[in-house]
User: Fold these one by one.
Assistant:
Number 1:
Amino acid sequence: MKAKNVLIAPSILSADFARLSDEVKRIERAGADWLHVDVMDGHFVPNLTIGPVVVKWLKKYATAPLDVHLMIDNPDKYIPAFAKAGSSFLTVHWEACTHPKKTIDLIKKCGCKAGMTIRPKTPVQKIAPYLKYLDLALVMTVEPGFGGQSFMPDMLPKLQWLRQRISQGKLSCRLEVDGGINLDTVLPAVQAGADVLVAGNAVFGEPNAGRALKKLRQRAMS
Ligand code: DX5
Ligand code: ZN
């Protein structure tokens, strides 16, 4: 993957939720390409985070595209609300979809770009039939639910496999990696084919988020 094509999407899950608008401005000034928004429902994953109301307010302050990762059961029920709130990308979990293609169509009908992802234990081949319809394929490199976990290197072959399929099919689908991305793991992820990097703790967990983001980008391009 050519380094100049690599985008960074800081995850606001690790931001100060009482100062979200400041955090958004700070991270955009530092050069964030997208803002990754982790939505958790307490069912699909054990954690609870945010809903469409918060996305609506983020949209008011953000200029970068909102990359909304839905870790929720029954995503079809909530896609229209998250789209209306201002999401640019809506990524659903394959495991949570009854009819994945219908869910992709619904996301697009609501005016958003469509993403699909899989839990670490799910074989990557499960999303292959949908790649040609997707704007974004996301490989989880931690078990979804919490920020600040360790990167799972055994997920790298999934990135390589998807990159090959995307290249062979000349597809326009972006390939995103999410979970445990930091200065040690960013390069293997990019070398395996990722072109969008989600980073939560490695950016917001540092005293100077701007500097952390810049270092991550430098390392991704090294
Ligand atoms: C995990 C989330 C991730 C997480 C990334 O369920 O999907 O986006 O916030 O955070 P770090 O980079 O800290 O692993
Ligand atoms: Zn995420």
Note: Residues 156-168 form the longest helix (13 residues).
Number 2:
Amino acid sequence: MSPNIIFIMSDDHAAAAISAYDGRINQTPHLDRLAKEGVRFDNCFCTNSICTPSRAVILTGLYSHLNGVKTLADKIDGTQPNVAKMLQAAGYQTAIVGKWHLGHGGVHDPTGFDYWNVLPNQGEYFDPPMIEMGEKKVFPGYATDIITDEALRWLSGRDRSRPFYLMVHHKAPHRPWEPDEKHAHLYDDTTIPEPETFNDDYRNRAAAAAAARMRIDRDLKPQDLKQPVPEGLDPQQEKSWKYQRYIKDYLRCVASIDDNVGRLLDYVDQEGLRDNTVVIYTSDQGFFLGDHGWFDKRFMYEESLRMPFLVRYPSEVAPGTVVDAMALNVDFAPTFLDFAGAAIPSTMQGSSLRPLMQGKTPDSWQTSMYYRYWMHMDRVHGVYAHYGVRTLRYKLIYYYAQALGTSGSTDDPKPPEWELFDLEKDPFEMRNVFDDPSYAEVVVELQRELQRLKDKVQDPE
Ligand code: CA
């Protein structure tokens, strides 16, 4: 029988908050099990670092401009092909539980799923209402537990004669980072280290970095901090205090995810499904955990571009495998189809990651990727629209900085600007070398590569 696939995706979980990747700020023993017993991808990137678009890319195997979900304000058209429909046609039972965030009602509801039970819009952390096959109900408890409970409930009632495809989508650790009672006091007696670039002053960068409104010291709201700022702190102390408030609640939400991933893995193991089940953990994008003085995502910078991607599949994947090759969220759907033994439509824009997991990365595998953030200056975060190319060593970003009619954008064009980072010499992207004459040839090469990728993914100017 074709393998079962369990795809667990959280919302805004940066790789730096998984100890299999980093371990400086927290421990995630259950997520680490996936890396230890399977494969860890170290260079998995999203093509548009924001919730709704990344989800649409994963479902359709198409870039944002072709699946119609370019910004947070766009809804999916569920009449288009998606990977769940294709797996259904290949004989799979399909289900999605948890965050959907691609619109509701009519063509915006989940399609391709035999069973769906999803949070409306962003969803609530406590006593979340959910829409189960079109019917709204309230589920008492904590969202991360409930989403796992409901996934397990569906699993125990499934048809055991057929393989299954189950998407488990957590709301956590998305803003406003509300932990449950069980983890509320985790880290009470510790100080979480501040990241290297915590006091970035945004010099030597395009104007976009300084213009963004997602700074720890200035842009966190009372509902994010949940406590009044103590009096008598100097500005640096206040920034550090806010960071601790933010990061501890974030990590407490992550701890609950980790526990619940453990519950799902235990179920798989106890049911004897271990060898024939592909278990994946990822997040819809990365996140700034105080890096560059920020929270949130959107930028093509490393912390928000990089997705955690861990896969356990004992039948095929050797324990402790690490893949350095570049993987993209647009590659996920082809990967699922490959595991299912189903045809990958030529219209899909990604490639299966299955050979990489087996240690057989093809010689022709991608060494560069195209990125585009469409939502110009949304009212809250103010990030400029940009696109760019990342290669193994460099990153070239072009802030075209215009709305171009996209939803949720502000029609307030800014002067276009370029950024070039040498990731080997400057891994934290603190020094834009676009105008440095010694990089003139690199610029020409990367601009050519950017154009090649634009043509390839069919995103015209
Ligand atoms: Ca997200």
Note: The first helix runs from residue 29 to 37.
Number 3:
Amino acid sequence: MPTRGQREFFAVRTLGEALAGFRPARRTGTERVPLDDALGRIPAEPALAPHALPGFARATVDGFAVRAADTYGASDGVPSYLELIGEARMGRPPEIELRPGTAVEIATGAPLPPAADAVLMVEHTQSALPELVEVVRPVAPGDGMVRADEDARAGAELAPAGRPLRAQDLGMLAAAGLTEVEVRVCPRVTVVSTGDELVPAATRELETGQVRDSTAPALAALVREAGGEPRHAGIVPDDRDALAANLQAALPESDVLVVSAGSSVGARDETAAAIASLGEPGIWCHGLAFRPGKPTLLADCGGMPVIGLPGNPRSALVVFRVVGMPIVRLVGGCTHPPPEPTVSARLDRNLPSAAGRADVVQARVHDGVATPLFGSSSLLSILTAADGYLVVPEAATGLPADSEVEVILYR
Ligand code: AMP
Ligand code: MG
């Protein structure tokens, strides 16, 4: 066992400490991608509007472009009359100049003629004669239209750096003529599965005692959800040197390293030593005050985050979701992750919890009622039955039945 960092070697941290304090320096570089490939990617810098949008004043209703002042006081009893002098054409620069007392027919989306400052809805007019618009309702300046720079001023931020691009962001960039975007390279997250009992998930017939590697494919999905690119380095037997060699080999092509299993009491010193051999400063925490996730290891090896997960698939997935995904996002420059979908619900029973330890509890939610699911952390079926999970904070000694809880939903 290494003597260096002996104190940290036994450091148990809270979930909050891990989320706020574990920040290895590694960040991915940037690349340019076309909009078609940019969904979910993280802009490396703010995308700025090269010009005002929409770029010209546009009608937002079908009706008549007018000077609002010409409609003041108009009512059913005392209509105003405007001379209809033409039509604003869709997709063409305006050709007609509006004079006092006149109106121009206009459809939604067409450019307003110069001097027009509002569009009167066709429903608020009557037409006594073809060349005359009878106005029965006044409009204020700006009604029925958007200004030339109302969607974005020239130079405005269309999409912030660090927030995954969504469908509407891509639409906004397209509207501004930005066909490519500078994004962060997806962090390469290498998962090394450990365990003498593990066999590849594709193994058809199991010998008694063999276990398919179920964690790796599930972790790969969580890596993708966090914007990373998963890689599976395969299954390594329970052997410190083999693990160290595999991790060493994965280093050059990884931005985050994940060791699945081998961090429970018997094997943990071996795993910790293999991880610590990868680089300085090494182990940052050796245990989380968090259930299910106590044996979690976190290390900073030359700036590269290394996460040692508990072996039980359920614990591994919970820890990776709560602690690992934020690390993948950190490395990939995702400073503004999307808010997690949540629902408020009432607990249908008491939920015990030890003080000083956070608990992640799986739950079903139906009609505003949350039912916690209990069972061995080796059971994946608890996770597949759950709609989401709730966190009983460190300070709490449990939650009484009927408490209002916030359930974070699985997508
Ligand atoms: P360990 O942390 O290595 O003691 O593993 C704890 C439990 O999780 C054992 O029952 C392992 O068989 C199981 N386990 C570890 N890794 C995996 C995996 N990748 N897939 C499925 N089960 C696993
Ligand atoms: Mg094991």
Note: The helical segments are 6-9, 15-21, 167-175, 215-225, 240-250, 268-276, 313-331, 381-385.
